[in-house]
Amino acid sequence: MEPILRDTIIEIDLDRIAHNVTKIREMVGKNVAVAAVVKTNQV
């Protein structure tokens, strides 16, 4: 079976990520490491 290939586009709102990181840091404190994960909703 041949794989199905199609164009893929990803849009990342860096301002929204920065806002979310700021809010998370407010909750957990500056001495806590924060890691982010980018995931997809596969179609």
TrEMBL record:
Residues 12-41 form the Alanine racemase N-terminal domain. InterPro entries: Ala_racemase_N, PLP-binding_barrel. It comes from the Bacteria. It holds the Pfam family Ala_racemase_N. This is Alanine racemase, N-terminal domain. It comes from Natronincola ferrireducens.
